[in-house]
From TrEMBL:
Protein known as: Fe(3+) ions import ATP-binding protein FbpC
PANTHER family: SPERMIDINE/PUTRESCINE IMPORT ATP-BINDING PROTEIN POTA, SPERMIDINE_PUTRESCINE IMPORT ATP-BINDING PROTEIN POTA
Organism: Luteimicrobium album
InterPro entries to which the protein is assigned, alphabetical: AAA+_ATPase, ABC_SmlMolc_Importer, ABC_transporter-like_ATP-bd, ABC_transporter-like_CS, Mo/tungstate-bd_C_term_dom, P-loop_NTPase
Keywords assigned: ATP-binding, Nucleotide-binding, Transport
Length: 364
């Protein structure tokens, strides 16, 4: 019997009146006790539907959801022992911060002293010590989400389900809160499933990430595994790799490190070029070496970590507009340069999985 959450071949479908939409198309995932799993994917790929099915908010038309081996079919939302947190926190506007955080404890008839103690502890975990008496209307967006998190954690849910909890916040705040969310989940030993469309956020918060597209899971892996070895071009593109070059096109020339890795894994592979996977070299008239290509500078942008150069590269698959990194000098638009593959910024991609079936309206 497996401990924690097991989702097996789950299908979620909506009847739109014009036919059925298959939002989740046979998904299987496991979440171990104490683990944080992110569901990552583009808008409409079925992340929220899967989360809602686990919560019991959407019916599962096929497959099973179990907790510690017990089937949750027919178990209503409030009897699953799961906590929920959404994008807009959904705080009770006329209660104080403490009133909101202790809500689940009141429902569970926790004695007053224990409630007070737990509220203080949780406000500490989310960085809001001393905020208990504040009215929620006086809080900033980030503070509200912290209160929502404290409220969701207070009854010690056996699983916390978070649906885009940070996406209503601006970028800087989101980055800070992502770190705080990770710390809060670790500190409280909470098992969680976290929905996001932002890969940085998923990498920051989760132990493992499930990448979804068209209602299916394409890959589940830890953030470093996912980044180093995306299973398909679709995963690589979604993670922010900017180009995908056939490994065979790179096998000519000398046996440098990337070639060795590529050959090891078979020539049907491709190489995903990451945001730092290309370096700009001056076009000094020297004979081209393996893994360098001619390019024309389109524009250069200064960034704190180096100059980012947009280039039209005459690469292994024809001319492509890509970004390469340069040292401290920004080459002028129109300058002819060469770009070199930087192995540290590239990944070897697995064999392309068959294209998933479209989850467009189908008749049941
Ligand atoms: N109540 C509903 N009725 C009909 N179709 C729905 C319903 N909810 C979701 N869908 C459809 O199911 C598919 C998956 O939606 P879902 O909200 O699960 O995706 P998502 O990945 O969470 O997207 P987002 O990031 O935009 O929230 C989409 O095609 C969506 O239009």
């Amino acid at each position: 019997m497996s401990e924690g959450l097991a989702v097996r071949d789950v299908v979620v479908r909506y009847d739109t009146g014009k036919g059925a939409v298959t939002a989740v198309d046979g998904v299987s995932i496991d979440v171990a006790l104490g683990e944080v799993l992110a569901l990552l994917g583009p808008s409409g790929c079925g992340k929220s539907s899967l989360l809602r099915a686990v919560a019991g908010l959407e019916p599962v038309v096929a497959g099973r959801v179990t907790w510690d081996g017990s089937d949750l079919d027919g178990v209503p939302v409030h009897r699953r022992g799961f906590g929920l947190m959404f994008q807009d926190g959904q705080l009770f506007p006329h209660h104080t911060v403490a009133g909101n955080v202790e809500y689940g404890l009141r429902v569970a008839r926790t004695p007053r002293d224990a409630r007070r103690e737990r509220v203080a502890e949780l406000l500490g975990v989310v960085g809001l010590e001393g905020y208990g008496g504040r009215q929620v209307a006086t809080l900033s967006g980030g503070e509200r989400q912290r209160v929502a998190l404290a409220r969701a954690l207070a009854p010690r849910p056996r699983l916390l389900l978070l649906d885009e909890p940070l996406s209503a916040l601006d970028r800087g705040l989101r980055e800070r809160l992502a770190t705080d969310l990770r710390v809060a989940l670790r500190e409280t030993g909470t098992t969680a499933v976290f929905v996001t469309h932002d890969h940085d956020e998923a990498f920051e918060v989760a132990d493992r990430v499930a990448v979804m597209a068209h209602g299916r899971v394409l890959q589940v892996a830890t953030p470093p595994e996912l980044w180093r070895a995306p299973a398909s071009r679709a995963v690589a593109e979604f993670l922010g790799y900017q180009a995908s070059w056939p490994a065979s096109a790179l096998e000519r020339g000398d046996m440098s490190e990337p070639d060795a890795r590529i050959r090891e894994r078979g020539s049907d592979r491709s190489v995903a070029v990451g945001p730092t996977g290309l370096r700009v070299l001056p076009d000094d008239g020297a004979a081209p070496t393996a893994h360098t290509w001619p390019a024309t500078v389109v524009e250069s942008l200064f960034r704190p970590r180096g100059v980012e150069v947009t280039v039209d590269v005459d690469g292994p698959v024809g001319v492509e507009r890509l970004v390469a990194v340069a040292g401290t000098t920004a080459p002028q638009p129109g300058t002819r340069v060469r770009v070199a593959l930087d192995r540290a910024g590239c990944a070897v991609v697995g064999r392309e999985a068959p294209a998933p079936q479209e989850s467009v309206p189908t008749t049941p």
